Amino acid sequence: MKATRLAAVSLSALLLAAGCGGGSGDGAAATGAGYPLTVTNCGVDVTFDAAPRRVVLLKSAAVPYLHGLGVMDRVTARAGQYPKEYYDAATLAELDRIPLLTDRTDTSGHLQISKEVVISQQPDLVLGEVDNLSRDTLSAVDIPLLEEPAMCPNSTEVPSFEDIYAQFETYGRVFDRTAEADAAVAALKERVAAIRAQVGTASGRTAAVLYPTVGGGVTYAYGTASMAHPQLEAAGLRNVFGDVKERVFEVTLEDLLGRDPDVLILLYGDGDPAAVEKALTDLPGAEKLKAVRDGNLMTQLFNFTEPPTPLSVDGLERIVRRFGADT
User: How many CB atoms lie within 10 A of CB 298?
Assistant: First the structure.
């Protein structure tokens, strides 16, 4: 991979060489003590000569990492949806102080924002890639972008809780907060270990994680390349789509009836969770699903599962409370 460093002008010196690929194994390798620092993200090398000072968030996934590192004050602007249910009071207060550029999305829930709006913020780092503002577009004007590794294009790696720890450590090196990252990782490992101890052996029940389209349309399911898979395993449930190596894919009601999971977890981006559940139960024939008959449906905000972040641990705790071995 080619990495090029741009001399500093008014912002921290950065350059992102365009590319794609990679997966949940993305990491960071320092080229010396501290900085320069090179981070491999989606198969692309990004070199930092100093810790970023002007960060623009285009997705919410990085928020728990930045909060844990104590660097939310470096976020100068944000765009997209930031549901309050994700955050504690301290994080919400930090977010409230950050100007919101736009929360406008298309019918699929994808953020709509122009390149000009982002460039006007003079960022030295953008976190999160969106459909109409790609890595290549930003790299053309020397603005680097980091995406959560599990969301990299064409990723088929099987994610795990280890990826959350590795990403925390990566952000810790990028922002020169390695001690804070180590402490946060240790705390997360303790929580996951406690959950696994509580769950004990697998319950034998099956589950599927779906993303229904509210108002009618496609229903999506999550396979082994999604964080839904290890999350279900940690909760003592077996993913009925565990033989599908894709992250997310379309499914029909016939597909669901053929696998007939005991439990259904329904993800959504924002809005009314009751409407999300109704989007599934209104499908013709949905009443035949075992999970629907037994009332074993759970709605969950998207980032409580995907991509792998500290919120995935929160989501795991929620699943275990609802469908744990003792319930």
Answer: 19
The 3-state DSSP class for residue 197 equals helix
The contacts of residue 279 (CB under 8 Å, 6+ apart) are 212, 213, 214, 215, 216, 219
How remote is the C-alpha of 227 from its chain's centroid? 9
- Percentage of the residues of the chain whose pLDDT score is greater than 70: 88
14-187 CATH fold: Rossmann fold (3.40.50)
At 196, the amino acid letter reads: R
Quick one: residue 217, left, alpha or beta (phi over 0 = left, psi -120 to 50 = alpha)? left
Tokens of 83: 């549901």
- Buried b or exposed e, range 71-100, using 16+ CB within 10 angstroms: bbebbbbbbbbbeeebbeeebeebbeebee
Q: How many CA atoms lie within 13 A of 15 on its CB side?
A: 10
> Around Cβ 221, how many Cβ atoms within 10 Å?
25
The reply to whether domains 14-187 and 202-323 share a CATH topology is: yes
Among 9, 3, 14, 17, CA closest to 48:
14
- DSSP labels, 136-155: HHHHTTT--EE--GGGSTT-
Q: Which pLDDT tens digit goes with each residue over 305-314? A: 999 999 999 9
Q: What are phi and psi of 193, to 5 degrees?
A: -60, -40
Distance of alpha carbon 150 from alpha carbon 140, whole angstroms: 24
Q: Kindly tell me if the per-residue pLDDT of 292 is higher than 60.
A: yes
| Per-residue pLDDT reduced to its tens digit, 112-129 | 888 999 999 999 999 999
- CATH architecture label of 202-323: 3-Layer(aba) Sandwich (3.40)
Burial class (CB in 10 A: 0-12, 13-18, 19+), 327: exposed
Q: Where are the domains of the chain?
A: 14-187, 202-323
- The first and second tokens of residue 95, run together, are 């977010």
288: tokens are 């035949």
